[in-house]
Design goal:
By secondary structure, the chain is mainly β. It has a domain of 48 residues. The protein is 5% helix and 36% strand. The protein contains 1 helix and 4 strands, in the order H-E-E-E-E. It has a 4-stranded antiparallel β-sheet with strand order 1-2-3-4, with no helix packed on it. The protein starts with 8 loop residues before the first helix and ends in a 5-residue tail after the last strand.
């Protein structure tokens, strides 16, 4: 890929190489999902991994929604 620009490279690639945030996989109501823990028992949904097709249409399980779960040790 060739990029022609007058912008400095550090401005273009700013934030491009940051570490991904820690996520965990949990099962909530028979749905395997990847979540980002916020605090003890609360998390934000990142994506659904294993569920029925109807679960994708449920706004409760949309990415960005907050859920409560019991963290496993």
């Amino acid at each position: 890929m060739t990029l022609y620009t007058i912008m400095p490279m550090d401005v273009i690639w700013e934030g491009g190489f940051k570490e991904p945030e820690a996520t965990v996989e949990v099962v909530v109501e028979r749905i395997l999902m990847q979540v980002m823990p916020i605090d003890q028992g609360n998390a934000q949904i990142v994506r659904l991994l294993n569920c029925s097709l109807n679960d994708y249409l449920n706004p409760m399980y949309a990415p960005g929604q907050m859920i409560r779960y019991i963290p496993s040790l």
